[in-house]
Amino acid sequence: MAAAPPPSAPGGPEPPPPPLQYSLLLQHLVGEQRRPRAWDPAAFGGIPSPPKSEEQKMVERAMESCAFKAALACVGGFVLGGAFGVFTAGIDTNVGFDPKDPYRTPTAKEVLKDMGQRGISYAKNFAIVGAMFSCTECVVESYRGRSDWKNSVISGCITGGAIGFRAGLKAGVIGCGGFAAFSAAIDYYLR
Questions:
Q1: How many other β-carbons are positioned within 10 Å of the β-carbon of residue 173?
Q2: What predicted TM-score, i.e. pTM, was given to this entire model?
Q3: What distance in Å separates the CA atoms of residue 141 and residue 46, rounded to the nearest whole number?
Q4: How far apart are CA 128 and CA 122, in angstroms?
Q5: How far apart are CA 118 and CA 106, in angstroms?
Q6: pLDDT in tens, the chain (191 residues)
Q7: Exposed, middle or buried by CB within 10 Å (0-12, 13-18, 19+), for 123?
Q8: Sign of CA dihedral 73, 79, 83, 85
């Protein structure tokens, strides 16, 4: 049994407290001796989830596949691009304009036809870009084995470079940098 420290004299200084071992505390909080916690929803008053059936697992695997993500981005890009194309055609003053007869007022049929053509054109472009980016990001994520901001930057560079490379090497490099920067900004904002 260890001897207790002598009590301090009523007028004398108090003995210093024993030193805290911060390194030992840190090893248990964030170091190698840290134990992972099992977060059971039932322990916190939550609803416990039943085990997943084979059908649920199969649907989950299908929805997490690169093909499904690319198809979803393609459809979403088509819808968004179509809406954007119709909107820009609606505010464009040259829709339905005939350069041969500049004083003629276009009919509603001609204006709607031009709006539809622009909407389809934008829809196809947005669908292709969305599918390219989503598929590339999924492949990069699968290859790296991580889900972080670098995946979107790498896939943005690949997608922008592939789109810009059709116009030459310089355009490909600029497209790579621009699309990567845009992807990084969007990923920073959303995460």
A1: 15
A2: 0.66
A3: 32
A4: 10
A5: 16
A6: 455 555 555 666 777 766 667 777 777 777 777 777 666 666 666 676 778 889 999 999 999 898 999 999 999 999 999 999 999 888 887 777 777 877 878 788 888 888 899 999 999 999 999 999 999 999 999 898 888 889 999 999 999 999 999 999 999 999 999 999 999 999 888 87
A7: buried
A8: positive
